[in-house]
Amino acid sequence: MTTHSDDVAAVNETVATLLNRRSIRKFKADPIDDDTRAVLETVAQHAASSQYLNDWSAIRISDPSIKAKFAEIGHQPYIAEAPLLYLFILDEQRNARIAERKGVDTSSPDWGLASSYRFTQAQNDAVLALHAMETAAYSLGLGCVILGSLLNDIPELIELCHLPKYTYPVLGLAIGKPDQEPALKPRMPRTMQFFENQYPTADDAAMLDGLEEFDGTVHQYYDLRNTDRPATPSATRSPRSAPRT
């Protein structure tokens, strides 16, 4: 049976790649060659950047001992086996250096790049860059998993990667040649995430019925994937235990 997703995927290869996106947690041991790595990193640099401040960076983790530490922090052994591993960070350190060379007192509360607004914008920029790299990797036949679990121990990340003032960890990204083909996670109907002009009221019948139906779909997905463990409703999982999809 042809589905709406099938019709959308037929538009072009980019759309098909995005609709086929899934987290890969088992990689082949094959290394990622330098040319491919350069393509991925260049694509990340071409993501949108708020006010063109380029306020993100990425630490490429190649040291096996640091990889092992990352795996320990994330409680996910496969992190240590990833052929290519990055920690994306928000980075105002570079801009602080530029400002200081121009005579700006970066310790002053008037220095705008130390504001909470810039923190969130830099964080957004790092996520956009990571997603651009992830999409490029999938388009090249590679697999990825986004690592929010690394934020379990931010002080340890800062120490391991020698992150200076005005930087902060955002997310990790593991990349490699897939050695598994997990089922696609179900997505809720678009009508439950895209609203016209206003957010629906809490007692919206269509929304309530849709949520109940989707909860059943998610339960079925996890029951089939983990036959030895019953599903936990997604809304009741703690933020750190909820997997990135």
From TrEMBL:
A Pfam match: Nitroreductase
InterPro entries on file: Flavin_OxRdtase_Frp (IPR016446), Nitroreductase (IPR029479), Nitroreductase-like (IPR000415)
GO molecular function, one term: FMN reductase (NADPH) activity
Region feature (Disordered): 225-245
Alphabetical UniProt keywords: Flavoprotein, FMN, NADP, Oxidoreductase
Superkingdom, taxonomy of origin: Bacteria
Biased composition regions of type Polar residues, renumbered to the chain: 233-245
All copies of domain Nitroreductase, residue ranges: 19-177
EC number: 1.5.1.38
Enzyme category, top tier: oxidoreductase
PANTHER family registered for this protein in UniProt: OXYGEN-INSENSITIVE NADPH NITROREDUCTASE (PTHR43425:SF2)
Family: Belongs to the flavin oxidoreductase frp family.
Name assigned to this protein: Chromate reductase/NADPH-dependent FMN reductase/Oxygen-insensitive NADPH nitroreductase
